[in-house]
Amino acid sequence: MPHSDDWQYDPILERELTTRRPAGGMIQAVEIAQLPSSEWIINVKVSWRGDKWLNVCLFEQPTLKTYKRLSSAVRHVVLDYGYEDDHIRLVPDKQCSNKLAF
């Protein structure tokens, strides 16, 4: 994930990944990226929305869902989204100095 102001992913509501996933719809790839604030966000590629990265937003609001710890984001992807078939790409922010965020 680029660390400039010109990157833009499309949003996907968390409910679309859980309760409203289409029949046969799959999560194809996951990356967990760290923001400069040291919080983590989840980005996904899904089979029913084409081949582009999507920012996971809150269940009913197009606001980024953030996590204070990396372990919480990973647990959420595996347990709540049921993604355990492939790798999860991690994108840490090199300028973050908060070691507790890991």
From TrEMBL:
<keyword id="KW-0614">Plasmid</keyword>
<protein>
    <submittedName>
        <fullName>Uncharacterized protein</fullName>
    </submittedName>
</protein>
